[in-house]
Every structure is written in C-alpha cells, then in structure tokens.
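Hi W.,

Here's what went into the run:
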Amino acid sequence: MKKLFIVTIFITVFAIGCNKDDDDFMNLKSTLKIENTIIGALEGKYLYINLSLSDELSKDLILKADFSTEGVIAYINDEDYKKELEYSTDGKTWQKETNTNQVKFKSRTSNLKIRIPTIDDDLPETKEEFKLTLTPIADTDLSLTNELSEIKVSVVDNEVNKNPDEKGMLMEFAIADGYTGYTVTAIQNQISSSLEKEVIDEKYKRPVEDALKAFKLLSPSVKVVKFTILADPSSGLGGYVYNTTGEKGVDEWLMGMNIGFAYVDVTTQEGGTIPFNDNGIYGNIFTHELGHIITLNFDKQITFMKEGDACNHYRNSEGCSKPNSYVNLFNTDFYVTPPTNEPTHVTGYAKTNLEEDIAESFAHYVTQETTIPVSTNASSGALQKLNFIKGKSELDDLKSKIKTIYKLGYSDPGQQDILAKQVDKNGKPISCLNHKAILKALEKE
Amino acid sequence: MGRKNQMMIYGLLLIMLTNSCTSVQSVLPFPVSVSKEACKGKCPVYKIIILKSGEVDFEGVKNTKHTGRSKVLLSKKEFQELKQVYKTIDLSKLKNSYDQRIYDLPQTVIKNSNNSVSFKRNQSVPIELIKFVELLDEILKKNNLL
Ligand SMILES: [Zn+2]
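Here's what came out:
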C-alpha cells in the first residue's frame, strides 16, 4: 500500500514536471509551407489544402483567405462555392472560426488541413476556377518565413463531366423527339475566352431554343438529333451540318453553329459585343444550314444508295436525287448549262458546289426584304436562282416562318463579292438587289 | 553459336528495326503545298508551298491578315517542328479524300509531287494530318500571315 502511494506521488510529480515543461515551450520562429498549389474537386465535394510548419510554434497562428477570380477566364460563379474555410489537425474533426475566412494553426502543431465546401447544383458548367491566397495575420511576436504562394483552384462539374466529341466545340446538346426540349451532353473543360464562359453560363440558351423552333419547320420524319455550338468568332467558321447516320440513309442530322457570330460583331476589326444576332448574320448562317437539311434529306429529296448503284438523276455524296427533288431540278436548270450573266451566284461561297449554291440561294432568298423581280434568261444567274427558290412553294413559305424566329442579314463578305463583280458602264458597282440596273447594264453590253 | 548464325541474327535484327520505322519517312517529299478552302463564314482561305529550304510561299486569298503573295523563311525551330510532324504523314498510304459529307467545314488539301489528300476536319481524319495543319496555322499566325 505504502509502495503504491509512493509510486502515485512519483507519477504525479513527474506529470506536473512535464506540464511545467510544456508551459515553458517557447518557439516563435518557423517556416510556413504548402503541399500543393494546384488543387481541384468535383462539385459538391470539398477542396483540400495541406499546410505545414517547419517547427511547431508556441503561439497560435491565424491565417486569412482571399478569394479572387480576377484574370481567370473560366471564373467560378459565387453561387458555386462557399467562401468558408474549415480546418483540422487530424483530418477528422473540423472546426470553423467566427470569421469564416480565417483558420487557426494551433500552437504545438505542425500540420494543418483546410477544406472549402463547393456547391452541388444542377447546372451544366465547365471546369471553373478561382485563385486563393492564404496570408498569416501579422503578429510581431512571430518570426515567420512565409513560403505560401497563390493556390489555383478548380471545380469540375458533375452534371456534364464530358468534353464534346469534336475538338473546338464548346457545348453539345441532345435534342428531344419533336423538339420539345434538350439536354446538355458535353461541355468543353478547357475554355479560352470570356465569351465561352458567358455562353456556358447563360448565352447558349437563346440559340438552342431558337434552333428548336426552326427545326419544327422541317418535315416530321427529318430529325435533327444533335446541336453543337462553338463560340469562337476568330476561327471564322460559321456553322456546319451533316447526317449522322452515314451509310444508313436515315434522317438524323447534326447541326453545329458558331454562336460567336451571334454575339460578336464580325463585320468590324474590333469585334465588339452585340445583342443576340443583332446584325442577322447568325440568322443567315443558320438558314443556310437549314437549307442543306431541306435539300439533302431522305424524306423527299434523296434516295439512299450504295456505291455502284445506278442513278439516273443528279447524284451527290448523300445518294441519288429524286426526280422532283430541289437539287435535281437545280442541277437541270443551272448546272447542265450554267448561266453566264454575272453575278452567276448569290455569293462567292455559292460557287463551291451545287449543294452550297442551293443552300446559299435559299438563305439569300429568305433574307431578301424586297420582292424578287421575275427573271429571264438574260438575268443574272443569281437572280434566276432566287426565282428558282421563290418558285418552290415549300421554300417560299419558309421565308416568313424563318423570319419570325431570326433576324436576317447578308453574310459578310459574300454580299460584297457580288457587288464587286457587277458594275455599270461607268465601273460603279450595282447592288445585287438592284436587278433592274443589272439588266439595264447587261442590255448595254 | 556459330559466327554465321550470329551474323544472321544481327541481319534479322537490322531488318526488323528498319521495318518498324517505315511509318516515318527518311527523305521528306518537298515541296509540299497546303491549301485551305472557304467555309460558310469567314474562314481564312490561303495556299502555301513549303520548300526544302524552309522557305514558305504564302498566298492569302480571303480572311487572312496578309492578302496576296508573300515569302517567309521559317526559323530553324519552326521548320524543325514542322518537319517532325510532316515526317509522320505518308500521303501515298492515305486515302485521297476523307469524309466530305460534312457541309461547310473548310476543306484542306495537302499535296506533294506524287500524292494529295483532301479532308475536312473531323474524327475520321488521321490525327497526323490534323496535327500538321494545326501546327502550320500556329506558325502562319506567328508570322503575321493569318
Ligand atoms: Zn453549306
């Protein structure tokens, strides 16, 4: 019993002695380090940062966080994360300071884990980023070497965590049957302009919704199943379209549009921002792409055929055109014996091939504000082609319908190409729209 | 192993080594021309001829920073990089044309004295062709031509 008492006293004295040692611990010099300055997380999860001190301090160290998206192209939106920090020494128990943008590196510890919550929303987003700087709050007692540097933080979307199939594309949409809606199926994770960010955030909606309205004008068996967008006016690419079924002969189309043409004034060097399709160029490009689907579908235009199959009408890479198809009639009227009176085509691009010629003529006709004068064999090829479109009631009817959806303007520089080619006797350009003047000039030649 | 056998093995190894490298051309066919055609929109339309010396004959037709003809001598680094990618393209083994059913993408035509290939950029096109035109675009932009 006596023995036990002595041992207990000994332990107590030893323990007190130890505590006394703790109280005496004094170190105010250390180096603050960070494990990784590039961090990321899937949205809804925490972002983790690990800090360390070369030597434990005998005093708490408070650090303050500054969040910034300045100069960040794929900047994170405020509602996507919390500017709140939680911290822990063991990674199990987490706590917050009253000032939630601060964390405490407690005395006598050498590691600090920090986490920041991100918000799991239902929005399709790109990989979004922000910059985070952790700064020790000034404390004259401490002699601290701060080796922290700016942290690059990214948050990856969990709705559409997939890049578009085609390089350079920004977003991909699957179109619901009957054009009742759409879903975002892919978003580019590496964006390179603020326009692309704005498009992903909000500006994609109008072009997609307008496209759905326009697709409803197609024959019900002709389906556009996929819509893609890029937002890069500097690439110059306006749009594109193709049948996705390849060798099957089924009408499932994909249309891609550069909505950079809708939001940027491509007619000027400066390329300032414009309200959606304010100059009508985007509308013209869309109408051109729609023109391809209207003239190349398997519904009434083309008969699917295999290589080597006979075709008695105009044949192109889609198949054999039906006798009364637009491309077959266009071929008979303008390609068997091409018109020679300038301008022979409505735009320079229309000269590419018959398919582009008819799509350009369609877009050009739909864009016309004035009534097209009746053409004769002496008229310019361009005017004859506009009359061809006018003479097809389905195409003519689409004019007013498309105009309820899109503002339409002439695509630049196609229109200028024509102006340069038609001159009067004094060498002054005649507008392609001024058909009387063109005819008059031709008479004098 | 006899000396004869040893020689045979070395010989075989040499043949295998040479054959495994056939996808990379030893003598590059210069001059090579690259032309980019129009798209629906404002894509740059141009034609260039790259000579063995690294000289580039550029002709900007439309939507290019420089319109008309211009001669540029590529820097050693640029030409080396370009040759490195060009090496991987063997026009004689490629199709003459890759899926043209995509309307309105600009068509690219690459031609040397014996062969040519035309394509519109999409997934069916061999990656080395895409890499080549991407690098070329980058170089032309650096040289203020695009
Ligand atoms: Zn087209």
